[in-house]
């Protein structure tokens, strides 16, 4: 079976970092992911996804990312049910992120990034190359 998801979007708010009773770090945040098409009215729409990250990656994301930053999250979808404060059963589908790639420049306050990125993989802060424009569809390697 395969359960894998990759989304690119902007943080809706600063990540929230917590510790489990056993001391493990967990961060949660919401991502706004623009839809590819613009409706006839001209206003772009977005989907909003809840993301949960664990361990060192959670600590790095909480330390280095803020509202409006562009990130790529790779992980899996998870569904769960819980009972709300009102006693009603609720179901949620969320992304459990395993890797987060920072797509906004360090000094970017939420403006569109320049394509440079740094990765958060258990503490890695390496820079990746700027790949420029995307090749036309007929030149794509797949």
Q: For this structure, what is the CATH homologous superfamily?
A: Nucleic acid-binding proteins
Evaluate the radius of gyration. 17 Å
Percent helix range: under 10%
Global shape = globular
| Low confidence ranges | 110-142
Give the spatial strand order of the biggest sheet: 1-3-4-6-5
Average residue-wise pLDDT: 80
Largest sheet: 5 strands, mixed, barrel
Number of contiguous helices: 1
Question: How many β-strand runs?
Answer: 8
Q: Give, in order, the helices and strands.
A: EEEEHEEEE
CATH topology category name: OB fold (Dihydrolipoamide Acetyltransferase, E2P)
Write a concise synopsis of the structure shown.
This protein is mainly beta and 142 residues long. It is 7% helix and 45% strand.
What can you tell me about this protein's structure?
The protein is mainly beta and 142 residues long. The chain has a single domain (5-129), classed as OB fold (Dihydrolipoamide Acetyltransferase, E2P) (Beta Barrel), CATH 2.40.50. It is built from one helix and eight strands. The chain has one helix spanning 55-64, and strands at residues 5-11, 16-19, 25-34, 46-54, 70-83, 89-102, 117-120, 127-128. Strands 1-3-4-6-5 form a five-stranded mixed β-barrel. The chain is globular. The relative contact order is 0.19.
Question: What keyword list fits this structure?
Answer:
single chain, 142 residues, mainly beta, OB fold (Dihydrolipoamide Acetyltransferase, E2P), five-stranded mixed barrel, disordered C terminus
């Amino acid at each position: 079976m395969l359960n894998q998801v990759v989304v690119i979007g902007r943080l809706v708010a600063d990540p929230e970092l917590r510790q489990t009773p056993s001391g493990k770090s967990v961060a949660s945040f919401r991502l706004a992911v623009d839809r590819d098409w613009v409706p006839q009215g001209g206003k772009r729409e977005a989907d909003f996804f809840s993301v949960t990250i664990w361990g060192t990656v959670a600590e790095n994301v909480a330390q280095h990312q803020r509202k409006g930053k562009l990130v790529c999250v790779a992980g899996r979808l998870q569904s769960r049910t819980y009972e709300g404060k009102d006693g009603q059963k609720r179901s949620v589908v969320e992304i459990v992120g395993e890797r987060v790639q920072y797509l906004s420049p360090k000094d970017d306050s939420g403006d569109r990034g320049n394509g440079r990125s740094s990765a958060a993989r258990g503490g890695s802060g390496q820079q990746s190359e700027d790949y420029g424009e995307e090749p036309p569809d007929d030149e794509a390697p797949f």
